[in-house]
């Protein structure tokens, strides 16, 4: 084995887990809104992350795409300002507001300067609480969404995910594109958007993370200004959905030189006691590094792909364990064969002591590096709250990783890896594969 | 040359100083005796560091016939040295809690690791090792060639927009290697071999052709000492060639291309014009073009979207783009994605009409003030990411610029006048220098 002399010393150092050096303050506004804050004054701006639990899955039957369209219109005119005036105002303040929607949440990411914080917040407040939904803005954004829907229909990476979701989730909102269809979007009315807004953006489902140049008192006051006018409660959350798959391949014929595949089956919930072990296991099987088994077997040894990954997807109402790979049409069958073998091997045998040790040093060492800037920190703070984690999680997380044993991994591998349910969806002209 | 007079106009908005703290305060530079440049960017908020080595060598420095070899070699640098087994570099980084990767562009190839600050020495030890001691075996490199071909499949062959871009760039450059894709033409990639990779490696990988950038929780003196220890002993390459690529002849005819593919769902028209880049000590024209792109298409309130998306509702998206960071002549681009029922021919005419009106009307000063204030604010926001600051310095120093150029750039942008923007626009919008491309579905043509 060729190693540097100094390597041994460094590995010994790595045995003591690093801690993330951040100090989180829990803040509650006079009006009762909670937030987590990391105060960091060296750069005169604040990063603010808001998440409203629910997201596109709150779309009512027949109104698919309503939440997405509603969120797309939040910055297209609010209060006294039409779309253009709103944009000019944001530019004049050099504030940035990003509005996004996922299956389980509406997210708002804001960044604003200390010197004009009050004005920036007033503008953001109007977007959140007083969107105008002007008809010309609705028409314009609808046209943009239709353009996206059409492009997605020709994009193999999107097609493959959609087909997998449709197979697994059926009529549940998770089973269809959150943009909706051309028809469902065309049918959405201004009233639908008002209803969606009232249902999705409510105080009973909001989570707040802030990092940067602001005190706890200022943040508390700001929360009531920003969110106080929102309704107390919103729409009911959707039902949970069971995931069941059968081993096999579904081919979606599409004329591209490289087949794109997604694979997976049921996963594990974020609050399951075995989640940590599953997370470490996945790092070894198909995490992002070149050391992961899938990367080693499919790419490094055989050159079958540029990238192959697996990842846990703990959604609010279902959990999946998924992976992705792309290979030329005449090589995808081999890539799938290798992935199946690795999946089975790990389910039966777990991992080696050496693999577990390297995964731990990587995961514990990499964790503090995530806290590298106000933006990333605000994001982590809001994510922790949505996952119902305590404030001191940042200090205990690495200990939880360290505590995972080889037996834990073996037990959890046998529990969550299901070769008998491992389903592949392949988009392309794969050779030697049939549905 | 700095000109500050024009700032007086913008001072109404900018009167409140945004921040006393600037990036210059955090940056220290050195040069090692063997010619390796060192840039240190201090950021002591978190105990982390990013370590990057940038080579002044990219795909545009390749010999004809071996397109993609710069990027191929980038992959092969992870395949071992006399001291490290294949894959061990990344394994060691990961075992130390870090992540690593690399990227190749026209003008540079760069390698980086993000790790806890106390692991910097180890990163340097390994990076210095592979600058000279690469050891490749024939098997490994064939497997890796398959990987880069799959990478091309994924990034290019499967995406008509990327294929269209390759065709436009090839038409844009009559003689300069920017017309060849960074990842390489497929027919040349499939026969790249060990000799091709090693020839490129020996020619370009040396300390006097490299820039070390370290950003994070470090002190400049510590970095210098470590750099001297690890990179200092590597001898300079005195045979390093001068960096001169084949240059463009006068372009005398507009090129028009139409790329048709059944996978195109949303047709659009895009035109790029050959444009000057940022040159050392001479960045005003590039600054004017940077602001022109913002004024024409940088945001919702800019000229093209306001007219075509908001007022006339004839476009789904319209915009303009320019990046002055390039060793040789770059491009200025405009794009129009027409609304349903508007043909590409009409979309092209719309775009040209709006630009012609703009050249007559001139720059809206209120809009320009907003843009300049946002650029000043960007100097505050960018301090939040030492990683992207590190990239900025690395890219600038491998694209022919100096540290002074990087530091002067924000003030040059602030000093640009509306007249300079219009003058730059009139110069750059020369159809003889342009490629106009239509991307459309194959069906549309057969109708």
TrEMBL record, chain A:
Task: Write down the species.
Answer: Marivita geojedonensis
Q: Which keywords has UniProt assigned to this entry?
A: Hydrolase, Protease, Signal
One GO molecular function term of this record is: metal ion binding
By its UniProt entry, which InterPro entries does this protein fall under? Metalloenz_LuxS/M16, MPP/UQCRC_Complex, Pept_M16_N, Peptidase_M16_C
Q: Residues in domain Peptidase M16 N-terminal?
A: 40-181
Spell out the Pfam families in the cross-references.
Peptidase_M16 (PF00675), Peptidase_M16_C (PF05193)
Q: Which residues form the signal peptide?
A: 1-20
Xref: Gene3D superfamilies = Metalloenzyme, LuxS/M16 peptidase-like
Q: Any one Gene Ontology biological process term?
A: proteolysis
Q: Does the keyword Hydrolase apply?
A: yes
What region holds the Peptidase M16 C-terminal domain? 188-362
Q: Which PANTHER family match?
A: METALLOPROTEASE (PTHR11851), PROCESSING PROTEASE (PTHR11851:SF224)
Domain of life, per UniProt, equals Bacteria
What is the recorded name of this protein? Answer: Zinc protease
Query: Is Protease one of the keywords UniProt gives this record?
Result: yes
TrEMBL record, chain B:
Keyword check for Hydrolase:
yes
Specify the signal sequence span. Answer: 1-20
Q: Which domain of life is it from?
A: Bacteria
Keywords, alphabetical: Hydrolase, Metal-binding, Metalloprotease, Protease, Signal, Zinc
Which PROSITE patterns does this entry report, sorted A to Z?
Answer: INSULINASE
What biological processes does GO assign it?
proteolysis
* Domain Peptidase M16 C-terminal, first and last residues per copy: 191-375
Protein name per Swiss-Prot or TrEMBL: Zinc protease
């Amino acid at each position: 084995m060729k190693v540097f002399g100094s390597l041994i010393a460094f590995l010994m150092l790595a045995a003591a887990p690093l801690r993330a050096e951040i100090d989180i303050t829990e803040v509650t506004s006079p009006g009762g809104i909670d937030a987590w804050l990391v105060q960091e004054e060296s750069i005169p701006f604040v990063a603010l992350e808001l998440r409203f639990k629910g997201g596109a899955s709150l779309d009512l039957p027949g109104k698919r795409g309503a939440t997405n369209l509603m969120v797309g219109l939040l910055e297209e005119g609010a209060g006294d300002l039409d779309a253009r005036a709103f944009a000019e105002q944001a530019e004049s303040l050099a504030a940035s507001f990003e509005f996004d929607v996922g299956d389980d949440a509406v997210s708002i990411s804001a960044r604003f300067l200390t010197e004009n914080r009050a004005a920036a917040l007033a503008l953001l407040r109007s977007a959140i609480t007083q969107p105008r939904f002007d008809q010309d803005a609705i028409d314009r954004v609808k046209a943009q969404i239709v353009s996206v829907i059409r492009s997605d229909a020709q994009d193999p990476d999107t097609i493959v995910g959609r087909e997998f979701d449709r197979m697994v989730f059926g009529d549940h909102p998770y089973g269809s594109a959150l943009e909706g269809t051309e028809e469902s979007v065309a049918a959405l009315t201004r009233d639908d958007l008002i209803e969606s807004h009232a249902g999705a953006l409510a105080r009973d489902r909001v989570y707040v993370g802030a990092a940067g140049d602001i005190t706890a008192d200022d943040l508390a006051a700001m929360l009531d200004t920003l969110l106080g006018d929102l309704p107390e409660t919103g729409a009911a959350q959707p039902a949970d959905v069971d995931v069941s798959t059968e081993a096999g391949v579904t081919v979606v014929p599409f004329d591209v030189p490289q087949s794109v595949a997604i694979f997976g089956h049921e996963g594990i919930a974020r609050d399951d006691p075995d989640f940590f072990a599953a997370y470490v296991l996945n790092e070894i099987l198909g995490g992002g590094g070149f050391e992961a088994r899938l990367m080693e077997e499919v790419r490094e040894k055989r050159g079958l792909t540029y990238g192959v990954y697996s990842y846990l997807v703990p959604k609010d109402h279902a959990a999946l364990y998924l992976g992705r790979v792309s290979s030329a049409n005449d090589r995808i069958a081999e890539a799938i064969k290798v992935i199946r073998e690795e999946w089975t091997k790990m389910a039966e045998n777990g991992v080696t002591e050496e693999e577990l040790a390297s995964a731990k040093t990587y995961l514990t060492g990499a964790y503090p590096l995530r806290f590298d800037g106000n933006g990333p920190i605000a994001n982590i703070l809001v994510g922790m709250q949505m996952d119902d984690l305590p404030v001191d999680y940042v200090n205990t997380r690495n200990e939880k990783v360290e505590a995972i044993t080889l037996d834990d991994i073996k037990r959890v591998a046998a529990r969550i890896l299901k070769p008998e349910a491992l389903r592949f969806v392949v988009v392309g002209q794969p050779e030697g594969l049939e549905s | 040359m700095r000109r500050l007079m024009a700032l007086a106009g913008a001072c109404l908005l900018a009167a409140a100083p945004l921040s006393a703290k600037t990036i210059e305060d955090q940056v220290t530079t050195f040069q090692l005796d063997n010619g390796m440049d060192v840039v240190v960017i201090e950021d002591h908020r978190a105990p982390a560091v990013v370590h990057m080595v940038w080579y002044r060598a990219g795909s545009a420095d390749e010999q004809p016939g071996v397109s993609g070899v710069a990027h191929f070699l980038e992959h092969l640098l992870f395949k071992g040295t006399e001291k490290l087994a294949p894959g061990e570099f990344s394994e060691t980084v990961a075992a130390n809690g870090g992540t690593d990767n690399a990227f190749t562009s026209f003008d540079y190839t760069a390698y980086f690791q993000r790790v806890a600050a106390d692991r910097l020495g180890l990163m340097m030890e390994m990076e210095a090792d592979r600058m000279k001691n690469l050891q490749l075996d024939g098997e490994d490199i064939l497997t890796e060639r398959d990987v880069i071909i799959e990478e091309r499949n994924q990034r290019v062959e499967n995406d008509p927009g990327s294929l269209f871009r390759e065709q436009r760039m090839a038409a844009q450059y009559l003689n300069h290697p920017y017309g060849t894709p960074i990842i390489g033409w497929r027919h040349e990639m499939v026969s790249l071999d060990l000799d091709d990779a090693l020839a490129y490696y020996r020619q370009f990988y040396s300390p006097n052709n490299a820039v070390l950038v370290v950003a994070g929780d470090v002190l400049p003196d510590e970095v210098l000492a470590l750099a001297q220890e690890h990179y200092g002993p590597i001898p300079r390459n005195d045979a390093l060639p001068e960096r001169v690529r084949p240059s463009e002849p006068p372009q005398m005819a507009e090129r028009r291309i139409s790329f048709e593919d059944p996978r195109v769902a949303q047709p659009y028209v895009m035109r790029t014009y050959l444009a000057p880049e940022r040159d050392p000590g001479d960045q005003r024209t590039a600054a004017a073009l940077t602001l022109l792109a913002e004024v024409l298409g940088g945001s919702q309130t800019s000229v093209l979207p306001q007219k075509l998306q908001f007022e006339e509702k004839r476009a789904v998206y319209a915009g303009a783009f320019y990046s002055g960071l390039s060793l040789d002549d770059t491009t200025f681009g405009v794009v129009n994605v027409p609304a349903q029922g508007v043909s590409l021919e009409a979309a092209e005419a719309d775009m040209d009409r709006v630009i012609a009106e703009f050249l007559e009307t001139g720059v809206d000063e209120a809009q320009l003030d907003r843009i300049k204030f946002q650029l000043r604010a960007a100097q505050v926001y960018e301090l939040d990411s030492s990683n992207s600051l590190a990239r900025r310095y690395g890219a600038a120093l491998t694209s022919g610029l100096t540290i002074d150029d990087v530091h002067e750039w924000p003030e040059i942008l602030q000093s640009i006048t509306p007249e300079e923007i219009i003058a730059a626009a009139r110069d750059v919008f020369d159809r003889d220098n342009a490629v106009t491309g239509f991307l459309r579905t194959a069906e549309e043509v057969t109708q």
